[in-house]
Design goal:
- The complex is a heterotrimer of chains A (about 400), B (about 375) and C (about 300).
- By secondary structure, chain A is α/β, with parallel strands linked by helices.
- In chain A, β1, α3 and β2 form a beta-alpha-beta unit.
- In chain A, α15 runs antiparallel to α16.
- The longest helix of chain A has about 30 residues.
- Chain C folds into two domains: about 220 residues, P-loop containing nucleotide triphosphate hydrolases (Rossmann fold, 3-Layer(aba) Sandwich); about 70 residues, 2-Layer Sandwich (Alpha-Beta Plaits), CATH 3.30.70.260.
- Chain C is elongated.
- Classes of the chains: A alpha/beta (about 400), B alpha/beta (about 375), C alpha/beta (about 300).
- At the A-B interface, α2, α5, β4, α6 and α7 of A face α2, α4, β4, α6 and α7 of B.
Chain lengths: ~400, ~375, ~300
């Protein structure tokens, strides 16, 4: 036991002295988190709440349906909309110039056209922000115009059915604006996913963890290349102790680096991952999975350089598939495969814990990581040894 | 062969012979372009709605309405829908039960449960669901209104169908889309990813390749080369040419590979190749700087990976720079990636001519020249240090 | 201290070590002399418990040595042929680390580390990272680590390869001193001068087998105890050769045009008669060289090969 800790302490001292562990495990991932959060920042915020929006619109004074349309837009419950009226000719220029979300041109004689069953087109101009709010507004306008259309179709149908013309107006009114048959009751889903920035922080931490744990078991190959492995073997310690010490080194570095990255990430980028206890369990699980993978790599490669390459390949493939840079979706078999990815499971677990999940709630992701760790250990027993331990 | 070419050829041969390079330099970029294309190329930004519950006329009417609004609709069980919601795999889920379906058929009112996922895109999709539900509801309302006026249902249906065919109804028309949408018009599924990744990886591999310069110094190869009758200027130029050849081989491979495998349109090939050549020159020069300044190979590898990814990200190789906020967009012009990206965009999307991309080419050439001079000076100093 | 019995190691088809047996007593220095590839390092690797043997046993101080066992390993100190030190640690840190693995702790550990640093002449550079050391300094530290825990058996695998003459002499001197202090030493080399100078007994290894074993003198008698005498000069060489062949001590005379090469039993005694005889026969002798047999000639005699390529 003392031999084990002597070796772990010695390894840690060397890794700390050799700056590369800091570069790979802390500086590069933090820099990437920063840059990614900057560049992804333009893709939309972290909140689901809609921001106040501005609409530049034109409609004839006294156009009843036009006023109704703009009124519906202005009185939306889900977002705060300001409608600014300008002459029709200026809508486009004004929308672009003022940075408004949407421009609406209600054509002249709109009400008359709708009521008399003539074609009329409401023109929309998207603002250059390409905002989410603009998308919502487009859909709202579409809905209101659909209502008008339903009214005029109903009126026409009434006429075709031989109803007296006097009844058609109220009929249209009833069809368009009568009490809706289908109503929606909304709820918010239990949030089990991280915000955009949260995903970046968790993803980069998971990705670079794969590099960090490589400093452990794969260090065996470096020991062999610098000749010290032979000397260790001549010492009164067992071979298992040597390998275990390396695994412990990788594990400790992994836990420390991941903890620091998550802590620094949530500090810099203002994300919360939920209960520290749950996060700690997730970290231990993902580091175990990553460490066990290094055993497999150590079996497959012959030199330290090959080990670095193999480890980098695994890190990038698992990291990207796990959603370290952008969420990856799959269906059927691909989705199952993605679910079994330890980095994916780690990000998912953090999502659940960020949403207030307890230890019980993260059991699924933890089980995936534990199974991965077990499979890695077992696999490394079964694989023929090509390198480090030969 | 002149000493200069000999040095460059040896560098290129060493690079190609190192099998560990094959994956990251040749296979990985293509894999990533394939993945990005399949994830984002088509239907990206498309809203996703899950409809949970038994099959019914209501469910199919809603699905049809949503699809016509450009939303991807999946039918699933309630538990699966909740799981998908919580993981962000769907934006909105509609929960229907048998009673809802029956009420709809009978023209009675029904309340539908709708759940929105927690990602920001879900709000817009929810509004699309509202509009679709309203449209389906309107169809029923029309029937009910006519029935209320004494028209039998069968007749009412017929009349509505005929009326819909005859009557001109008001429509909504998006007459002017935003700049971002316009910017990507005419791009194939893999085109954007291919342009971004070729820049990202050529630069990244060049930087990480700087490690061989350091090893060359350490293993004493540099010393031996310098003891041969070659000037240090020739050594430096040979190294620069070697770095450049490596970058050009990789860039050419990715361009050809994506064109053949994924049908990526590179526009006018001569112009795209010209952009790539200048970008390779910048990459090679940057590699020489790193290889000269840093003496420890694993530190250089870290700086190479970190620097390559960070500059690539800032230069628009991860998220298209068209989405950048203004400050970031301004910063992005400090990277060679952004200039090359803009030039490739002009060629790929707008059929740009040499005249159109002259400013970008000029900036890339200037960057290459400046970095080459700096790199050559630093490398020459480091060679002296190695002796 | 060390008993090796019928040790055999096969790598696939190749039998690298074939039934090797020998023993070393406390205070004795035992040399394995043979060319590169003879199997010396494989023997050492099994003796130090780095690799398992296919057959045969190794006992150190009465305890069996196996790769898995740890008891026997407390008694040995290994100095591998390749450097085996951590470049990112200082000399002292290297010593302390390997000392702890040997189970030495506390004040005892620091005291021994100081002693070893003094012995290998690195006391004033003990705090520098070893990657900044010269080749000779690294070699000395490489040996020092093997000495730290005062092993009963010190195993040195070609410790002087690639070492400058000054460091080499220092290394040989310390081995001699340790042997005097009672340490058993197993020493492999392909330099016969080192084996002759250091080793009490020598095994000549070739193709995985011990070809001969014994003290230097015992080995040399195997060659038949003949010396060579090399006469250079001018004059009537043919007549001189004729006359010398008649002398009783001379077994054989060859001529190469510029001189005569004689094979003689007990050269030093016969020398005077030979020089006088050659002069009388009309040869003007300008130089004389007596070549006594050495391990090189023993090796040549036993294997028909030169020790060095």
């Amino acid at each position: 036991m003392r031999g084990l800790w002597t070796m772990v302490a010695n390894d840690l001292r060397q890794r700390i002295r050799d700056k590369s562990v800091f570069i790979f495990s802390l500086i590069v991932p933090l820099a990437l988190m920063g840059v990614l959060s900057l560049v992804f920042g333009g893709l939309g915020g972290d909140t689901v709440e809609l921001k106040p929006a501005t609409v530049v619109a034109s409609a004839d004074d006294g156009d009843r349906l036009g006023a109704e349309l703009l009124g519906a837009v202005e009185s939306l419950q889900t977002m705060d909309v300001t409608v600014r009226r300008v002459p029709a000719a200026d809508v486009r220029a004004e929308t672009k110039a003022s940075g408004a979300d949407l421009g609406i041109i209600v054509p002249a004689g709109f009400t008359q056209a709708v009521l008399s069953g003539q074609a009329a087109s409401v023109q929309l101009i998207q603002g250059d922000g390409g905002t989410l709010e603009a998308g919502v507004l487009v859909s709202v306008v579409q809905g209101v115009v659909d209502q008008f259309a339903a009214g005029s179709v109903t009126a026409a149908a009434g006429g075709l059915s031989g109803l007296p013309p006097g009844e058609l107006g109220p009929l249209a009114q009833q069809a368009a604006a009568g009490p809706a048959l289908l109503t929606l009751t909304e709820e918010r889903a239990a949030a089990e996913q991280l915000s955009l920035r949260g995903t970046l922080v968790a993803g980069q931490a998971g990705l670079f963890l794969m590099f960090t744990v490589g400093f452990g078991v794969l260090g065996l190959l470096a020991e062999r290349e610098q000749g010290t492995l032979a000397r260790l073997r001549s010492m009164p310690i067992t071979g298992t102790t040597v390998v275990t010490a390396k695994a412990c080194t990788g594990f400790i570095l992994g836990v420390v680096a991941t903890t620091v990255l998550l802590a620094a990430g949530s500090w810099f980028f203002g994300v919360s991952f939920g209960s520290p206890a749950v996060v700690a369990v997730l970290i231990l699980a993902v580091v175990s999975a990553a460490t066990s993978l290094t055993f497999v790599v150590a079996r497959l490669v012959r030199t330290a350089e090959q080990a670095n390459v193999a480890q980098s390949i695994l890190a990038m493939v698992l990291g990207i598939a796990g959603g370290a840079f952008f969420p990856v979706q799959g269906t059927g078999f691909a989705a199952t495969l993605l679910d079994l990815n330890p980095i994916g499971a780690f990000i998912r677990g953090l999502g659940i814990s960020a949403g207030g999940g307890s230890l019980r709630d993260v059991a699924g992701p933890v089980a995936v990581m534990a199974a991965f760790a077990a499979a890695g250990l077992l696999g490394s027993r079964l694989l023929p040894d090509r390198g480090a331990q030969a | 062969m002149s000493p200069l070419l000999a040095i460059a050829a040896v560098e290129l041969r060493r690079f190609l012979r190192d099998r560990s390079n094959i994956f990251f330099v040749f296979i990985f970029p293509l894999m990533l372009i394939l993945l990005l294309g399949s994830q984002f190329g088509a239907g990206s930004g498309q809203g996703k709605v899950a409809i949970a519950g038994p099959e019914s006329g209501l469910a199919s009417a809603l699905a049809a309405e949503l699809r016509s609004a450009g939303v991807a609709v999946t039918a699933s069980g309630a538990d699966a829908a909740r799981a998908d919601l919580s993981r962000g795999r769907t934006d909105v889920a509609l929960f229907l039960d048998e009673a809802d379906g029956q009420a709809y058929e009978a023209g009675r009112t029904a309340e539908l449960g709708v759940v929105m996922a927690s990602q920001s895109s879900a709000q817009a999709v929810l509004q699309q669901v509202r509009t679709a539900v309203q449209a389906v509801s309107l169809g029923r309302g029309q029937l009910a209104a006519l029935a209320g006026a004494g028209v039998p249902e069968a007749n009412a249906r017929q009349a509505l169908d005929r009326a819909a065919a005859q009557t001109a109804v008001p429509t909504v028309e998006i007459v002017d889309t935003n700049e971002v949408t316009r910017a990507f018009r005419g791009l194939g599924r893999f085109d954007l990813g291919a342009a971004q990744q070729v820049l990202l990886f050529v630069f990244l591999s060049s930087l990480t390749g700087a490690v061989t310069l350091i090893q060359g110094r350490r293993f004493g190869v540099v010393g031996r080369v310098m003891s041969a009758p070659v000037s240090s200027g020739q050594v430096v130029a040979g190294q620069a040419l070697g770095r450049f050849a490596i970058a050009a081989v990789q860039g050419g491979f990715i361009m050809a590979g994506t064109a053949l495998l994924f049908g990526v349109e590179w526009g006018n090939l001569w112009l795209s190749a010209l952009v790539l050549v200048l970008f390779c020159a910048v990459s090679a020069a940057a590699a020489m700087i790193i290889g000269s300044v840093i003496d420890h190979d694993s530190a250089a590898a870290g700086v190479g990976v970190g620097g390559g990814l960070v500059l690539g990200g800032l230069g628009g190789c991860m998220v298209p720079p068209e989405f950048f906020p203004d400050t970031l967009a301004a910063i992005s012009y400090a990277t060679p990636h952004r200039w090359a990206y803009d030039a490739l965009a002009a060629i790929q999307r707008r059929g740009g001519t040499l005249g159109d991309i002259l400013p970008q080419l000029g900036v890339l050439a200037a960057m290459a020249a400046a970095l080459l001079l700096l790199g050559a000076w630093l490398l020459r100093r480091s060679l002296n240090r190695a002796l | 201290m060390l008993a090796v019995h019928s040790l055999t190691k096969r790598f696939g088809e190749l039998t690298a070590v074939d039934g090797v047996s020998f023993h070393i007593r406390a205070g004795e220095t035992y040399g394995l002399l043979g060319p590169n590839g003879a199997g010396k390092t494989t023997i050492i690797s099994m003796v130090a418990g780095l690799i398992p043997a296919n057959d045969g046993t190794v006992h150190v101080a009465g305890r069996p040595m196996t790769p898995a066992g740890t008891e026997a390993k407390r008694t040995i100190g290994l100095v591998p042929q390749e450097l085996a030190i951590y470049p990112d640690l200082t000399a002292r840190e290297n010593l302390l680390f390997f000392g702890r693995l040997q189970g030495i702790t506390g004040k005892e550990l620091t005291r021994r580390a100081d002693e070893v640093l003094e012995l290998i002449g690195l006391a004033d550079r003990a705090g520098d990272l070893t990657k900044k050391y010269s080749g000779g300094m690294k070699r000395r530290l490489n040996i020092g680590i093997g000495l730290l825990h005062r092993p009963g058996l010190l195993i040195l695998d070609e410790p002087t390869v690639g070492v400058d003459p000054q460091s080499r002499n220092a290394i040989l001197e310390s081995v001699e001193r340790l042997s005097v202090e009672g340490m058993a030493v197993l020493y492999t080399t392909h330099y016969m001068e080192e084996a002759e100078r250091l080793c009490d007994r020598i095994a000549i290894i070739d193709e995985g087998r011990i070809q001969a074993e014994g003290t230097r003198d015992e080995l040399i008698t195997l060659t038949g105890g003949v010396d060579r005498i090399n006469l250079r000069g001018g004059g009537s060489m043919a007549r001189a050769a004729e006359a010398l062949r008649a002398l009783p001590a001379v077994r054989r005379v060859d001529s190469d045009g510029t001189g005569l090469l004689l094979t003689v039993s007990d050269g030093p005694t016969a020398l005077a008669g030979i020089v006088t005889g050659a002069g009388h026969a009309g040869m003007s002798v300008t130089s004389v060289e007596v070549v006594r047999p050495d391990l090189e000639s023993v090796f040549l005699h036993l294997t028909g090969k030169a020790l060095r390529d």
